[in-house]
Amino acid sequence: MASTEAQRDASVKTPADADAAPDQLAGLEAGLDALETRVKDRVPVSRVLLDKVLPPVVAIVIVLALWQLAYTLELKPHYQLPSPVDVGHSLQEKWLDGTLLGYVWHSVSRGALGFAASLVIGTPLGLLVARVRFVRAAIGPILSGLQSLPSVAWVPAAIIWFGLTDSTIYAVVLLGAVPSIANGLVSGVDQISPLYLRAGRTLGATGVAGVRHILLPAALPGYIAGLKQGWAFSWRSLMAAELIATSPDLGTGLGQLLDQARVDQDMSLVLAAILLILVVGIGIELLIFAPIERRVLRSRGLLPNAR
């Protein structure tokens, strides 16, 4: 009997207890929020220089030193292996001629337009393959095969189909980039937890709304990885097309500059063109895709905020 009365007294909430309950819940929520929140520490400039700038600078210095050493030891005749200074002089001559930026801009504009078209085609294609079983069974292996096929293999066929026109170059870029973008999106969708999709359907996010608010945001890390790979493939495809499909009507990009230097047996200009192609490709990835990828991963807690 006494124990029953004690339980009854314990179950009765006083007004003070009722007022304290919301405060306790608020304190609990604040504690959980504090656990989830990462403190954004400002990274010192010296740390950024040490971690981000110094390693690539050291690598470049080592490569240039080994290059100069090979030139000094004459591992190859100087007309076959010019020094870094000779390559720098070739770049300087093109700069003074006022043609260097024209070569770069011609290729970059082509690559950007081809990549944009690949994005427009590859995104819905990837969604279709990822969500429709019959389409995946029919097209999925073909996309994987196209992604592994060297882009240069399409150049002769594109020349026969379209002639020596810009259509040939853009066709090669599309065939190189679209499979990578589509497969990246398929991989991102495959990694989505089914719980997210069921929750979205429960909330009424179906059809286009489900794709916009649930599917694409959840698949964003894999999609961004596919975009990076798609840009790499589009840039490689563009250089292959420009190297082979040469015509005065096509203008002069970096690929045509490289082929022109080969015809003239100007090894300094050949290496200068290769260097420009490398710098542009890496630069666009570092300036555009890498920041987007870091932001997406950081927003999902996959990277520390201080990076």
Short descriptors:
mainly alpha
Query: How many helical stretches?
Result: 13
The general outline is globular
Show unreliable segments.
1-13, 15-22, 28-37
Which class best fits the helix and strand makeup? mainly alpha
Q: Rg to the nearest angstrom?
A: 29 Å
Strand content bin = under 5%
Biggest sheet: strands, sense, closure? Answer: none
How helix-rich are the residues, as a percent range? over 70%
The CA-CA distance between the termini, in Å, is 64 Å
**What is the arithmetic mean of pLDDT?**
77
The total of beta strands comes to 0
Give a verbal description of the structure.
This protein has about 300 residues and is mostly helical. The chain contains 13 helices and no strands.
Give a nutshell description of this structure.
The chain is mostly helical.
List the helices and strands and how they pair.
Elements: H1 2-11, H2 15-36, H3 45-72, H4 84-97, H5 100-131, H6 133-148, H7 154-162, H8 166-190, H9 194-202, H10 207-218, H11 220-244, H12 254-263, H13 267-299
Helix pairs in contact: 4-13, 5-6, 5-8, 5-11, 6-8, 7-8, 8-11, 9-10, 11-12, 11-13, 12-13
